[in-house]
Amino acid sequence: MSTLLQVEGLSKRYRRGNQEVAALDGVSLSIAPGETLALVGPSGSGKSTVARILLRLVEPDAGRISFNGEALLGLRGAALRAIRANLQMVFQDPMAAFNPRATVAGLIDDPLRIHGIVGRAERPRAIATLLERVGLATELAGRRVHEISGGQRQRVAIARALATRPALIVLDEAVSALDVLVRADILSLLAELQRDEGVAYLFISHDLGAVRAIAHRIAIMDGGRIVEQGEAATVIAAPASATGRALVAATPELPVFKETVS
Amino acid sequence: MTPLLELRGLGVRYKGAVAPALEGVDLDLAAGERLAIIGESGSGKSTLARAVAELLPQTVIQQGTVAWPGLDQKARNGRDIGFVFQDPASSLDPVMPVGDQVAEVAHANLDMDWRAARRLAVELLDRVRLPEPALLAQAYPHQLSGGQKQRVAIAAAIVARPRLLIADEATSALDTIVQAEIMALISALVAEDGMALLFVSHDIALAANLADRVAVFRHGRLVEQAATAELVSQPRTDYSRALLAAHLGLHA
Ligand SMILES: Nc1ncnc2c1ncn2[C@@H]1O[C@H](COP(=O)(O)OP(=O)(O)OP(=O)(O)O)[C@@H](O)[C@H]1O
Ligand SMILES: Nc1ncnc2c1ncn2[C@@H]1O[C@H](COP(=O)(O)OP(=O)(O)OP(=O)(O)O)[C@@H](O)[C@H]1O
Ligand SMILES: [Mg+2]
Ligand SMILES: [Mg+2]
């Protein structure tokens, strides 16, 4: 099987005052075209650090990444910009990732303009279509990012990532603030795009229900390492690692009320 | 019994908006009660939370009343109300160590000197299960992971032992293990201090496991409120039924 993304031996230490934090310690993973790999693990286990390194926002101390056959970590300038159209990210914290003064339409227009996806005249139509795809009313287009709800903001981030029709989208807790109904719609939109356009996802989430619904494979992280990898349904049904077992056991289920209230 | 908080005919319209974000909401919250607010994205949950804490922008048009019959005076943010925002990073000061941000709330509201407040802050960071809290207290927000920032925001909200904790999607970025620990901590505070809880969440299972009562919002209106057991086993509206049915469990 061909690979779209191949990550080998990624390590990263951060300095925090006079403390050293080993955020990643030899992480290897791969994603095939059109595949969804879920990255799950306790808070602070290194998931967003993997994402930030893929997007070249943080440089690793060691490791190799090949994307579409190219060595990602060596790229600079125009070559890096060209890759960015093909590798998009939805940030865990959309508010911090967005310019607070930008409007919803402006945010979605950015990638369309920067990467020359559609001509100037067609851009308003393209923006409207993208908003509609993520279930947002076009009347939100003129609002600023602090003038919409948290779930609406997450969907703007998703629309922005879809705009360039990338080969890989890194989704960092991208559906975590969405109610169940909207989340179900977004998950089926992601699945539909995967079917139609063959986009692959690195789906970072603590929500194992969503993971089970969308991912082909799961990698479980703990303390900067991958402690378990496997087929999604299998891992969730019978996790082999202690971390996997603890994550599954702590997932809230709807309580069952024995006698019905009258 | 006198409720702690009483909302009557609460309506909110943002400047320039075509439809109101909230309309005609009547809702009571008793001291020590745990109320979950659920509903779809954009239904007005965060608007309700902000209206209660008087944190809406000045430009909104507000109707109805927010009254505190259970308090002798108007509720004060920090002391009477602890607020965990949906977007925790935005409520943290980027240029102040996170421990000081928690300590500041204690210093300002609990009549504590800085030394004691700092000590209490580290204790709180430990209670929200942050690793090596004494060291982590010195970190700046950008040096923490998303879930770690969310836990700092929770620590700051509960450090002054408020009468009401408003938690707006407060655990949405937390893994299930830490989430369960935070829920246990919040439940303990409710039991020990009689703190009331307004718990906004999109996760029905989480809400149902924590709350005494659930209020369901849609398009700015309160469509149903009931005791948790009743809402889960016998929802009265199609909308509540749809929300329950869309829950993605692990054993489906
Ligand atoms: N800029 C930084 N400086 C210092 N330490 C950092 C920095 N960014 C992250 N860390 C630390 O690295 C570790 C991994 O962080 P990361 O953000 O990758 O975790 P995560 O798995 O995404 O967690 P979460 O689920 O809470 O978002 C954490 O202990 C965090 O505190
Ligand atoms: N400052 C603002 N100006 C104009 N409209 C706003 C503003 N803030 C929120 N809105 C709108 O008011 C409605 C209710 O927003 P609110 O944030 O209360 O929703 P919510 O139920 O918390 O949603 P979510 O689950 O997505 O966080 C939304 O349609 C939103 O776009
Ligand atoms: Mg993260
Ligand atoms: Mg909200």
For the residues shown, what is the average pLDDT of chain B?
A: 91
- H/E topology pattern of chain B: EEEHEEHHHHHEHEHEEHH
Which secondary-structure class do the elements of chain B indicate?
alpha/beta
**Rg for CA atoms of chain B:** 18 Å
What share of the residues of chain B does DSSP label as strand, in percent? 15-25%
Strands ordered across the widest β-sheet of chain B: 5-6-7-3-8-9
Number of helices of chain B: 10
**DSSP strand content of chain A:** 15-25%
Cα distance spanning the termini of chain B:
42 Å
Count of strand segments of chain A: 10
Mean pLDDT of chain A: 90
Q: Hey, which two chains have the biggest interface?
A: A-B, 54 and 58 residues
| Main sheet overview of chain A | 6 strands, mixed
Q: What best-fitting shape of chain B do the alpha-carbon axes yield?
A: globular
Q: Could you characterize the architecture of this molecule?
A:
The complex is a heterodimer of chains A (262) and B (252). Chain A contains ten helices and ten strands. By secondary structure, chain A is an alpha/beta fold. Chain A has a domain at 95-165. In chain A, α4 (104-114) packs across α5 and α4 runs parallel beside α6. Chain A starts with a strand and ends in a 13-residue tail after the last helix. The mean pLDDT of chain A is 90. Chain B is α/β, with parallel strands linked by helices. Chain B has a domain at 87-162. Helices cover 37% and strands 23% of the residues of chain B. Chain B contains ten helices and nine strands. Chain B has a six-stranded mixed β-sheet with strand order 5-6-7-3-8-9, sandwiched between helices. Chain B has a three-stranded antiparallel β-sheet with strand order 2-1-4, covered by helices on one side. In chain B, a hairpin with an 8-residue loop joins β1 and β2 (22-29). The radius of gyration of chain B is 18 Å and the shape is globular. The N and C termini of chain B lie far apart (42 Å). The mean pLDDT of chain B is 91. At the A-B interface, α6, α7, α8 and α10 of A face α6, α7, α8, α9 and α10 of B. Bound molecules: adenosine-5'-triphosphate (2 copies) and magnesium ion (2 copies). One adenosine-5'-triphosphate sits between chains B (14, 17, 21, 39, 41-47, 57, 86, 202) and A (147-152, 179).
